[in-house]
TrEMBL record:
Domain Heat-inducible transcription repressor HrcA C-terminal: 73-226
Coiled-coil stretches noted in the UniProt entry, renumbered to this chain: none
PANTHER family with a match to the protein in the record: HEAT-INDUCIBLE TRANSCRIPTION REPRESSOR HRCA
Protein name: Heat-inducible transcription repressor HrcA
Keyword Phosphoprotein set for record: no
Lineage summary: Bacteria, Candidatus Beckwithiibacteriota
A molecular function GO annotation: DNA binding
Amino acid sequence: MFDLNDRQTQILKSVIEEYIETAGPVGSETLDKKYNLGVSPATIRNEMVNLTKMGLLKQSHVSSGRTPTPIALKYYINQLMEEKELGVTEEVAVKERVWDNRNQVDILLQEITRSLAEKTGVLAITTTNQGKIYHSGYANILDIPEFYDIDVTKTVLTIIEDFKRMDEFFSQDDSEEIVHALMGDDFGLELLEPCSLVFTNFNLKDKIKGSLGVIGPCRLNYSHIIPTLKYFGSLLNEISQSI
């Protein structure tokens, strides 16, 4: 997709990971101090200018640092990110929590959604082709700077009650990836541009198909959230084989 040299790749990865951690624009001085890039702040600045021209970084104000664009975040997910899988103990704890509800679909999906919200620290949502919708983790997003904007938060909370709209979002990415990510203008709504929806699909009892995902800021901790979603999706598919 992008022909980046090693230095540009390292700088872009560092900008994204700093942005995910801090929610603020990232400057060359910060990268120089924290990321041991092996080049001068002036060189870092020049490369950040080049990455901006490529559409991977953006600058809100002349004097500010830069933030990654949605294109850069997707590139990070697909090319640069190192997944941090759930530990065995965590996987077992989730499985034990939901397994006994495997024959009661409503309770199972409520517990799965609640567990996902707890594990990811954002808003979790599940829909099925039966027209059912489950969500958990409202309080999680209230501590996230992007949701201090009441209009953004109201839009998200309204959307997750709207099965038709959520189904449209979950159907938008038809790639063969296990986990899909929508962000920025993928939603077609200006107030959702600071947000990201990451989701996976599942089958349950043959007749029930659904999607399970999380909604949060564009700077979600993808290296943790994506493998977590993969595990939750595989757990639902495993449960499907047992009932």
